[in-house]
Automatic annotation (TrEMBL):
<dbReference type="Pfam" id="PF19577">
    <property type="entry name" value="DcaP"/>
</dbReference>
<keyword id="KW-0175">Coiled coil</keyword>
<protein>
    <submittedName>
        <fullName>DcaP family trimeric outer membrane transporter</fullName>
    </submittedName>
</protein>
<feature type="coiled-coil region">
    <location>
        <begin position="29"/>
        <end position="59"/>
    </location>
</feature>
<feature type="signal peptide">
    <location>
        <begin position="1"/>
        <end position="23"/>
    </location>
</feature>
<keyword id="KW-0732">Signal</keyword>
<dbReference type="InterPro" id="IPR045748">
    <property type="entry name" value="DcaP"/>
</dbReference>
Amino acid sequence: MKTMSKRALVAAVAAALSCSAFAATDPVLDKLEKQIAELQKQIQELKATQVKEADARKELANQVEAQGKEVAVKGDIPGSVRRPGEETSVRVYGFARLDAVHNFGGRNNASIGDYAAYQPSIALTGSPEAAQRGESYMFTKASRLGVEAFTPTKLGSLTTKVEADFYNTTGSGLFRLRHAYGQLGSWLIGQTWSTFMDLDSTPETVDFNGPTGNTSLRQPQIRYTYVTPNAGNFIAALEMKANGGATSGDEMTRTPDLVLRWEKASDWGHVALRGVTTENGIKSGDSSSTYYEADGNGVVNEITTPVSGVSASKRGYGIGLGGHYVLTDTTWLLASASYGKGMGRFFNESVGSTVSDGKVYLPKELGVVVGVQQKFSDTLRGSVTYGQQRTLGGEYITVASADANRSVKSGTVGVIWAPIANVELGSEFMWSHRETLDGRSGTEPRLNFAATYSFGN
């Protein structure tokens, strides 16, 4: 019992001493504990910051990777874009266009779906159409959309183009294919402007169809261009009528058109000489004609007579010369002339070939276009044009329909104002005249206003 009491006393004294010692060092421990706690807090904050930074770096890397797959960069041709890692540059272009027309003459082509000026169908004086004067209408069928691509290859640059508009004569507003071709070096294969055309000698008009007497045609073709530095370009092509294209008298084509063109450009302008040979043919199978006739006894008999099919063909030809001359930096003179026999669809206003007694007759036709283009300022330009197409004498005149056209002609005065980029407002007065083989005629004055909003140019 005494031993336990001594031990308890010693323990109590030791505890008291221990408490006194810890009490004496309490401020130091508190400071250390605070410092340790602060360090631990900073460590936790640092770890949290590192985690956030790692997440941010990962997110940024993901965004960069995604953008690298989707975002396009500037392409190799003006107005084009190219995706990283790809060599093809693509340009999307086109325009939205509204035309507003007032025709002071008789009703013409709006009723058949061709809303631009078309001189071969001008209402003749005294006809019911001539009495329907003063028609006004608006249309947007000339609006256009196209895609052009450029790809470098070991054989040279590959250019691909597909372009369409809504200018079909069905009234449906569906796409009408204009261009669809690929061009690699000197070779072009696909559908585009005929090689017989000389676009650089065609004056600009507000009217969609352009000057009378002009050659305007797009055809599928295989074209080769031989370029020389001094002698100009020599071009040869095999072409054929596009599916669904206008026939203009060549009801059946068995062989392609052969087109040759030479052109040379210089600081003073350019000159081009063109030639074409094209087939005009018709081919129909045998048929029969049935009629009924009563004999002397009053009995009606069915009589069938055979009708032999027609198989006839004749090749036509055409030649053309045109160019433009730079009078001043702001004034250009443009002119072209085309002559041919049986050129058919190569003329906008062709009367076409005709068939009589199993023989094909080809018209001789001459087309002339002249124009002056003037640039008044950076935003205003204008043009004055005159064009005529005439059917000349020959065997064709003796067998052709009396209402076939002897001549069609037109003159225009127009201005185009571009107040801001990609916007053009045009106004044009056109006077046109038509005369038929039997001496009838008709006149058509008209005003055309056009607003064009472009993109991708």
